[in-house]
Specification:
The chain has six helices and eleven strands. It has two domains: 104 residues, Elongation Factor Tu (Ef-tu), domain 3; 127 residues, Rossmann fold (3-Layer(aba) Sandwich), CATH 3.40.50. The radius of gyration is 18 Å and the shape is globular. It is α/β, with parallel strands linked by helices.
Length: 246
């Protein structure tokens, strides 16, 4: 799979939108058919290019949410209200329409099922997307590597892939999911709303002495804060891999 992910990654391919569905009120799952897709690793992303009839083009990068599956690639797109691309992808692009994709891109922020180390995943908002690919590949490969996910969102309505995460956590004892709500927590939540801090990471992430692989994805400030916390708790900085946006 790694060799396939490298081959042809710089080639622009025409992709057609196969399906589109809401993940939250402000984000959507977009599944594209991509002929001759070379395959990808969980954690990689693609470059997406849109070109207007007058020749104007714009390019953005989006993480891949799907496990490798033939020629289909799923992206999770968070709508940015004043954005140039995401509102079009979420609200306008119809099923059957074509765009251009290039990738997969990235080789550092990836998880390989052959790695036996336990895994801590920490996501902020739409930073869950590449981590979702890791969770799906783990299940697809039948891996017994234990995963712990800490997922920070503003409110319960902002949890992307909510049903799938709930289902997987209930059926798989090797996957632990802990949600952190920064603005509004659901009734009966064990913790009040608040930003993710040292106590939460110390409680729900794998301890440093287990030498876990740590993957952190989200807005720049969030990623820097969580990375600093992990290092302060004794984690090897070389085993803390980050992907940031914004």
């Amino acid at each position: 799979m790694a060799r396939a992910a490298v081959s042809g990654r710089l080639t622009w391919r025409v992709a057609s939108l196969a399906s589109s569905a809401d993940l939250t009120s402000s984000s959507r799952s977009l599944v594209f058919d991509v002929p001759d897709w070379p395959g990808h690793l969980p954690g990689q992303h693609v470059d997406l290019r849109l070109t207007a009839p007058d020749g104007y083009s714009v390019q953005r990068s989006y993480s891949i949410a799907s496990a490798p599956s033939g020629t289909q690639v799923e992206l999770g797109v968070q709508r940015v209200e004043d954005g140039e691309v995401s509102p079009y992808l979420c609200d306008v692009l119809p099923v059957g329409a074509s765009i251009e994709l290039r990738g997969p891109v990235g080789g550092w922020f990836v998880w390989r099922a052959s790695d036996p180390a336990p895994v801590t995943l920490v996501a902020g908002g739409s930073g869950i997307v590449p981590l979702m690919a890791m969770i799906r590949v783990r299940a697809l490969e039948g891996s017994r590597v234990p995963f712990r996910l800490i997922y920070s969102v503003r409110t319960p309505d902002d949890v992307m892939f909510a049903d799938e995460l709930r289902r997987r956590a209930l059926s798989d004892p090797g996957l632990d999911v802990h949600l952190v709500y920064t603005r509004q927590a659901p009734e009966g939540a064990p913790e009040p709303p608040g930003r993710l801090g040292v106590a939460t990471v110390n409680t729900y992430a794998w301890p440093a002495e287990f030498s876990p692989q740590c993957f952190v994805c989200g807005p720049t400030g969030f990623v820097e804060t969580v990375s600093d916390i992990l290092v302060a708790l004794g984690h090897d900085p070389r085993r803390v891999r980050t992907e940031r946006f914004g």
